[in-house]
User: Fold this.
Amino acid sequence: MVDRRAAGQPLEHVLGWAEFCGLRIAVDPGVFVPRRRTEFLVRHAAALARQAASPADHAPALPGHAAALARQAASPVDHAAGHPRRAPSPADQALARPRVVVVDLCCGSGAVGAALVAALDRVELYAVDIDPAAVRCARRNVASAGGQVYEGDLYEPLPATLGGRVDILVANAPYVPTEAVELLPTEARRHEPRVALDGGTDGLDVLRRVIAEARLWLAPGGHLLIETSERQASQAAEAVRVVRDSGLPNHTDAMFTSIEGDWDEVMDVIKRAVEAVAAKAPRVSMVLKADLRAGVTDGLTGKVAALERYLSSASGVTED
Assistant:
């Protein structure tokens, strides 16, 4: 194991597993290693799935006969037997909730799907990857939860019966621009499949295909969640807007997570750097602190602007 690690293999490949959302996910050699930043995607997908599994808040109105049956079923009295109904147990209530249909595209090791199954009560999971090694690995990780893993290109291998039924569609598709792949850490370039990294000329080729076909699979009120970099987010959002304007369900959301990590953590680091600058350049520090306060209140755009101003100003800082 030491020799393999010293030779540059990812630690997760050497160990055979990676920690992800508190789970031990099997990761075979040559399979994309799940990144901790993708846990952000899982957290939001789980929150939206819980909403989808709450029929009281989201169920459409029933036609007359069905509504009458629903009222009778909800009544505390069993009218046929003439006595009070037994209060449903927590297990009964869990079984009564509808299954949330989740599709995990470009699933790799299956970490995202496995984490969602672990976080939710009732999930109908379908995962897809084009890499045979990833499919074999993902099947091991989701088999105990009854998840189905298919080998193929995005939506192509999915059962046609899923059309219009998907509540949560997650895609951690490759989004590194082709020219930038060679700039990745050696571990990724040499030991992870290029198909899991290379997103085409601008990094968004696969994501655009995911977005374009999502409307054929999402249920009304379904959610599309994708991961991309901060620099690509505006282009990805535009792709969603174009598709939505041409027929994406009105209540469909798109959520973008960042390759750069948690911006609150990033800003905390910057704030500490500003404090360090203050000792040498008080006037510059005051301006930077104002920028940072604006960044926190103005949201992500302000944070990015604050970061850019900090980096440009700090590069010219000299002692007073």
